[in-house]
Write a sequence for this structure.
């Protein structure tokens, strides 16, 4: 019922938009924006409503019709409208067709993700409770600012902790994708050209469309490509990608043999924190000495931060507090404190 009202609402919005264009005299196709089928220079649900009306034969043309085929399948239909609605709801970052969205890139490089420590921790905190392909960037950035403030307060009291950074549970904005043999062949062909300028459009449209919608920014070769072996590459997206949801979307494609997240394994310095009753519980874990094999030395620092007030918590006391124990269990490999 809700869905039907939604569509009727969209059609009504579209009719209002047409009325507006009629009275304002319409406009020539001045916009370069894909999805902007009413030439209003923004992409909004009104554009989606117009496409739905065209699809339902309620109207016969669109003011900027050449901006309407967002998946480049040769038709303008409800799939294109749905893409605009997803964009309007900030579920995807681009409506551009793959041939436009996937501009030239240099293979082997992903742009720097530039996330602060607070950003890394905010991503890890928000991902489990988000089902969308992207985390809300606004919410992530707000939380990141709050966490950066908490860490700065602690570090100003104990500057030697400035060297310790959080180990992300999942590397922000990255996926590891193993191609099926036919997609692998197409990628191999792409990579045979100039590695400085690869237009990453494989011709496998479902795969290309997901990359376009998720805002692919780079492809990094983590693995030596042995002839005949499956092609497995790292793919980079904006750093508020919800990696789990994005990996699941790629896993549904026939062209993708496996989609995984680049987890960090083993032991190493880390920060974990959580907020309970307006108090931040923060655990700094310093670990060093042959870490790939399991670090030999470990230092633990515990803090409670409330507003501007930083309280250091003694190790014995912290290890008897269930909140701190949870943080330690998230960070320290089993067997370190036996
Ligand atoms: Ca528009
Ligand atoms: Ca289309």
């Amino acid at each position: 019922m809700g869905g039907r009202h939604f569509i009727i609402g969209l059609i009504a919005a579209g009719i209002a938009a047409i009325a507006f264009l009629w009275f304002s005299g319409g406009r020539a196709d001045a916009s370069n924006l894909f999805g902007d089928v009413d030439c209003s220079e923004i992409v909004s649900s009104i554009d989606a409503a117009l496409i739905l009306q065209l699809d339902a034969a309620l109207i016969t043309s669109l003011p900027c019709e050449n901006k309407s085929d967002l998946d480049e399948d040769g038709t303008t239909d409800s799939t294109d409208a749905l893409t605009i609605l997803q964009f309007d709801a900030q579920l995807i970052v681009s409506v551009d067709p793959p041939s436009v969205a996937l501009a030239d890139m240099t293979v082997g490089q992903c742009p720097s993700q530039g996330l602060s420590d607070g950003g890394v921790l905010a991503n890890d905190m928000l991902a489990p409770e988000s089902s969308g392909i992207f985390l809300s960037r606004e919410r992530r950035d707000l939380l990141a600012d709050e966490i950066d403030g908490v860490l700065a307060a602690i570090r100003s009291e104990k500057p030697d902790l400035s060297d310790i950074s959080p180990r992300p549970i999942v590397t922000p904005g990255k996926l590891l994708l193993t191609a099926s043999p036919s997609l692998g062949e197409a990628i191999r062909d792409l990579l045979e050209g100039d590695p400085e300028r690869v237009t990453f459009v494989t011709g496998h449209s479902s795969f290309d469309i997901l990359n376009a919608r998720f805002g692919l920014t780079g492809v990094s070769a983590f693995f030596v490509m042995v002839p005949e072996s499956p092609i497995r590459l790292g793919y980079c997206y904006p750093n508020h990608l919800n990696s789990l949801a994005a990996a699941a979307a790629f896993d549904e494609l026939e062209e993708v043999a496996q989609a995984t997240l680049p987890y960090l394994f083993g032991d190493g310095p880390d920060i974990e924190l959580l907020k309970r009753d307006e108090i931040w519980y923060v655990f700094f874990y310093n670990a060093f000495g042959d870490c790939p094999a399991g670090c030999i030395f470990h230092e633990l620092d515990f803090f409670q931060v409330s507003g501007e007030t930083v309280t250091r918590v003694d190790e014995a006391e912290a290890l008897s507090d269930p909140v701190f124990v949870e943080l330690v269990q998230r960070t320290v490999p089993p067997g370190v404190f036996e």
